[in-house]
Amino acid sequence: MFEERIIRFMRLRKPIAIVSLVFVLVALGSFFTRGLNLGQDFTGGTSAEINYLKSVDQDAVLAALHKAGFHDAIVQHLDRASDVLVRMPVQKGHETSISADLLKAVNFDAANPAVVKQVDSVGSQVGDELYQQSVLAVVISLFLMMVYVAFRFRFKFAVGAVVSLAHDVIITVGIFSIFGWPFDLTVLAAVLALIGYSLNDTIVVFDRIRENFRKLRKYTAEEVVDLSLTETLRRTVMTVSTVILVVLALLFLGGPALKWFSVALLIGLLVGTYSSIYIATSYALAMGLSKEDFVIPVKTEEDDRP
Fold first, then answer.
1. Going by C-beta distance under 8 Å and a sequence separation of 6 or more, which residues neighbour residue 204?
2. From the CB of residue 184, how many other CB atoms can be counted at a distance below 10 Å?
3. Of 22, 31, 89, 102, which has fewest CB within 10 angstroms of its CB?
4. Chain centre to alpha carbon of residue 181
5. Considering the entire predicted model, what is its pTM?
6. What is the pLDDT of residues 126-181, one digit of tens each?
7. 60: helix, coil or strand?
C-alpha cells in the first residue's frame, strides 16, 4: 500500500545533487570571470524618457546622440513608436547640463520635435554603494531565513533551506551572467522575492515531513520524505503554475520596464520549485534527519526515579 502511493524522489537525490553542483560551479565560474552586466542603477549613468510628436527611428536617435557627444547610449521604444527611452553611462562634459544638452541633441528633426521627460541620473559612487548594499541585503536575508527555520523546525532543516535558497540565487544570477543580460534593481527585487517564495514552498514541505515523522514510526527517513513530497506535489504544481501565468503576463504585456524582472522571476520559480523538492530535503537527509528529531520521548517510571 505504501509503495503504491508515493513517488520515490529521493532515489535520484545523488545524481541530481551532482547535476546541481555542476550548474552552481558553472554559474559561479561565469560570475567571477565574466561578471554581471550591471545596469546604470549600479554603475551610474542617466536615463531619460523622450516623447516625439510623430514616430521616430531608434537608429536616428542614436546617431543624433553620438553626433552630440553622447557615447554608449542605448535607445529603445516604449509603448508607442513616438516614445523612446535613452540609457547611457556617465557622460564626461555633460554632468552639469545633461538635460539641456540631451534636449538639443534629440531635436534633430524640425518636423518632429521632441520633449525630454523624467531625466534620472545616478552617480558612479552611488551605484557602487547600491551594489554593495544589495549584496549585503541578500546575505542578511539568507541568514535571517536560516534563523527562522532553525527556530521553527530543526537546525538540519535550517541548513538545508539556506543551501536551497543560495542554490536558487546563484543559478538565477549565474544565468544572467552567462547570457550577459542586464542586472539592475528590478532584477535584484525579483531575486529577493524569489528567496521569500522559495522559502515558503520549502516550509510547506518541511511542515509535512515533521507531521509524517510523528505519525509514521515504522518507516525510514527516506520513505517519510518521499511520502511528504508526494503529498505536497499537487499543491506545489498548482501554486507555481498560477504564479508562472502571472509572470508570463508581466513578461509579454508589462513592457520593457518589467522584462528582466519577469525573466528573473520565471527562472527563479523553476529553479526554486526544483530545489524545494531535492536540494533542501536531500541536504537534511545527508545531515542525518530522523524521527528522533521530531518525536518527543515518552518518560517511564524508571526515568522519574532519582
1. 232, 235, 236
2. 19
3. 22
4. 13
5. 0.76
6. 666 777 887 888 888 888 877 887 777 777 788 888 888 889 999 999 999 999 99
7. helix
Does the pLDDT of residue 31 top 80, yes or no? Answer: yes
Which residue in 210, 218, 217 sits closest to 281, CA to CA? Answer: 210
CA neighbours closer than 13 Å in the CB half-sphere of residue 82: 9
303 neighbors 176 (Cβ within 8 angstroms): no
3-class DSSP state of 169: helix
Q: Is the dihedral of CA 175, 180, 184, 186 positive or negative?
A: negative
How crowded is residue 281: how many other Cβ atoms within 10 Å of its Cβ?
A: 28
Residue type, 153: F
Element at 186 (helix H, strand E) = helix 185-215
- For the sheet containing 45-52, what is the strand order? 74-77, 83-88, 45-52, 114-122
What domains can be seen in the chain, in order of their start residue? 2-38+126-293 (1.20.1640.10), 45-122 (3.30.70.3400)
Name the pairing type of β-strands 74-77 and 83-88: antiparallel
> Which residue is associated with the grid cell 542617466?
46
- For residue 113, what is the DSSP state? -
Q: What confidence tens digit (pLDDT) does each residue in 178-204 have?
A: 999 988 888 888 988 888 888 888 888
- Going by C-alpha positions, the residue among 147, 194, 201 that lies closest to residue 175 is 194
Are 276 and 284 a contacting pair, CB within 8 Å? no
Three cell numbers written together for 301: 517510571
